[in-house]
Design goal:
By secondary structure, the chain is an alpha/beta fold. The protein is 34% helix and 25% strand. The protein has one domain (4-231): Rossmann fold, CATH 3.40.50.1820. β7, α5 (176-185) and β8 form a beta-alpha-beta unit. The chain is globular and about 40 Å long. The two termini are 22 Å apart.
Length: 232
């Protein structure tokens, strides 16, 4: 990476928590709030932060499990999956959304961040990115395999900023009928762009997982960069 990365502190509604900050070369650019999977701000999420920093963005990844312990990071074996589910169950959606709100505010206040920011989330973080768009916290939003978006379509009318969704056609965690439901709901909304990768499983963007699909990840990254360059 050509920039720098470090942990910083954010003042939240009910406490101070950490966030991983990755800066591009030169230290300035549009901002991205990077929203974790249920495995914490682990090596994968930090590598994504650094990837987008190398692409020219100021990236801030808040530690959303801070109430259970600082900087918890998990892998993808069965024990860590169980722990991840427990951690996610211990934080309410209201708490998570409040943390995203605090992270967006902190990102906008950082020196060198432009006038616009986006949210980019994976799995659980994808759902949170969707809500960030609905809450008007960001100027554009991206969700990779956002679990639960199909159950939050009551907020679809609140999506007024550009939104990009990425789904895997072989995702066992988000069934095809759930994806179809999202596609149908947003069919007439020009500000929502949806990409389906036929051969991709859940977590296809994560090279640390068995379900990594390089071609789909490369395509999604390209679509995302084009989207960000146009919207920010």
């Amino acid at each position: 990476m050509n920039g720098t990365s470090k942990w910083i502190e954010i003042n939240g509604d009910d406490g101070v928590f950490g966030a991983y900050l990755a800066l591009p070369r030169g230290g300035s650019g549009p901002g991205i709030v990077l929203l974790q999977e249920i495995f914490g701000v682990n090596a994968h999420i930090r590598s994504v932060a650094e990837q987008y920093a190398a692409d020219g963005y100021v990236v801030l990844a808040p530690d959303l499990f801070w109430r259970q312990g600082p900087r918890i990071e998990l892998g993808y074996d069965d024990a860590d999956w169980q722990r991840a589910v427990e951690l996610k169950g211990a934080i309410s959606m209201n708490q998570a959304q409040a943390d995203v709100r605090a992270a967006a505010k902190a990102l906008r206040a950082l020196p060198g961040v432009g006038t616009k920011i986006a949210s980019l989330g994976y799995c659980w973080g994808g759902l949170l990115s969707y809500h960030a768009a609905a809450d008007g916290l960001v100027d554009a939003a991206i969700a990779y395999y956002g679990g639960g978006i199909q159950n939050a379509l009551n907020r679809a009318d609140d999506i007024r900023k550009p939104l990009m969704l990425h789904y895997g056609g072989k995702d066992k965690h988000i069934p095809r009928d759930a994806i179809d439901k999202v596609v149908e709901r947003f069919r007439e909304q020009d500000n929502v762009e949806i990409h389906l990768y036929a051969e991709a499983e859940h977590g296809f963007n994560c090279s640390h997982r068995a379900g990594y699909h390089q071609q789909s990840a490369a395509l999604a990254h390209g679509y995302t960069l084009l989207f960000l360059s146009q919207m920010l």
